[in-house]
Design the sequence.
DNA sequence: AGAAGGACCAGTGGTCCGTA
DNA sequence: AGAAGGACCAGTGGTCCGTA
């Protein structure tokens, strides 16, 4: 393991700590790294109702993290895990709408961190691909379950499939039109909108980009190397389809006005 | 439905009947075509132990087929379904090794017919892709379960996944080096080898082709438009991997003789 | 209330092995 | 015996909904 580049991180000061953590995690692929050790230093790993999970190294990617001298008493100071003697793993802090470069304060994570998780998944995919090629096994081109499993095993416990799939179209906008993405973030932050509202608002700008590709959203994703490794979200696909139909209907009716019914004006 | 081209068929006289059947089948996508009607004219469809299956229009793609006037008494003359009052569907006739252009005689199917089944699957895939695009759904690039289900629903009951997967590497050789494929068929026919032996013998020539691509069998498959829609068989992938390792080891040992251990001679 | 993610489920790729 | 294919199974893509 362990070729997680620092260059992507240096752009945001607040990511540098994460970068160091990430480096250490990657070094101990399979259960290790500082966070894994720290968590193992706490109590026993929780029992799941079901054992779908193959490993359970515990760690958190929260950008707000405990002080160094609390290593052996992980999150004991965290009221999220209240009085109940629980050693349940805490969830990631929720995202809030932040401007580019802004560090989220309090028990929150910012959107630069969200997008950084997509970059991390890409690194994990590249590792999985490398291993598959060495072994002569079939090689994934997308971020699959296998990649999420690998990330977890490498200690990136804060990466999970539902979360990553949930925000793919937001990351798509960030990749495809960073200026528009940044403007949207600033606007939604100013209006004090929550993450859900911002997330919803990310759909349309991506559909607008897709219009230039004849609403072929697969072509849009494939046009961008960092985006092409992600499955197109169902809802985004549906929105593009609806939009294409609308455009086709509009073109047809305008051609009725402007010419014969089978004549395309544009 | 129904754009099954005749051009691919006219090359072999014995395929012309199948071509007509195929046209009719395709016209009645979803349970129809002449074969489906014929089969429905027989007795009741069999009951499966399990109901994995969604539809079961019955038909056979055997190249040796009943006479036209037996339409209402399907396969009653076929001793494969012996005395037992069974209306069990008969299996396809087994393949035998035939030369290019040769019609299999008796209750056998020839290799041109085998390869023709791959072309049919491609046509079904194209149909499925067309429908998916119209609906704005995700569009398969390979022959998937969905395509096999579509083929069955379209009445091509003689197409099934285990069979198609079993002979993919044979079809690959046919696509990649038809001359070599033809020579192998003639040789194995002459030696009166069975289909299993011929099938085994198809692996190595494909690996030889792959050598020119650095043993990247995915690249080999992707290089050919009719082959690229098929998943690379696991065993073929493994053979290429082993062969690459062998070649690397040979190169390393020859470079020890010829130069330093890290020097590549070629 | 808004949000994170464990857990589930329908349908997949892959092929074994009971069948003829 | 050699071969065709129903049927199964482990792990997938997708996302709901019990949880915090």
Sequence:
């Amino acid at each position: 393991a362990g070729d997680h580049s620092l260059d992507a991180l240096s752009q945001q000061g607040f990511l540098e700590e994460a970068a160091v953590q990430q480096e250490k995690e990657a070094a101990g692929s399979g259960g290790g790294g500082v966070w894994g050790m720290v968590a193992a230093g706490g109590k026993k790993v929780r029992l799941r109702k079901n054992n779908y999970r193959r490993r359970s190294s515990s760690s958190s990617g929260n950008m707000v993290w405990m002080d160094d001298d609390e290593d052996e008493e992980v999150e004991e100071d965290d009221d999220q895990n209240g009085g109940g003697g629980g050693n349940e793993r805490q969830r990631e802090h929720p995202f809030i709408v932040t401007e580019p470069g802004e560090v989220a304060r309090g028990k929150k994570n910012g959107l630069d961190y969200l997008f950084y998780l997509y970059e991390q998944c890409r690194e994990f995919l590249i590792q999985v691909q490398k291993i598959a090629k060495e072994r002569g096994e079939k090689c994934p081109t997308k971020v699959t379950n296998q990649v999420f499993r690998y990330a977890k095993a490498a200690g990136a416990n804060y990466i999970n499939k539902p979360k990553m799939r949930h925000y793919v179209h937001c990351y798509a906008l960030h990749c495809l039109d960073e200026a528009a993405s940044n403007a949207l973030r600033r606007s939604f932050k100013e209006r004090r909108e929550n993450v859900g509202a911002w997330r919803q608002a990310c759909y349309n700008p991506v559909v607008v980009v897709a219009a230039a590709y004849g609403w072929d959203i697969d072509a849009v994703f494939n046009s961008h190397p960092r985006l092409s490794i992600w499955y197109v979200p169902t809802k985004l696909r549906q929105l593009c389809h609806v939009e294409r139909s609308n455009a086709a209907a509009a073109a047809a009716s305008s051609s009725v006005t402007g010419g014969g019914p089978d004549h395309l004006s544009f």
About this structure: Confidence is low (pLDDT under 50) at residues 1-61, 63-86, 259-266 of chain A. Residues 111-135 of chain A form the longest helix (25 residues). Chain A touches chain B at residues 135-139, 218, 232, 237-238, 240-242, 244 (CB under 8 Å). Residues 48-50, 52-53, 91-95, 160-163, 166, 194-196 of chain A lie near DNA strand C (CB under 10 Å from a C1').
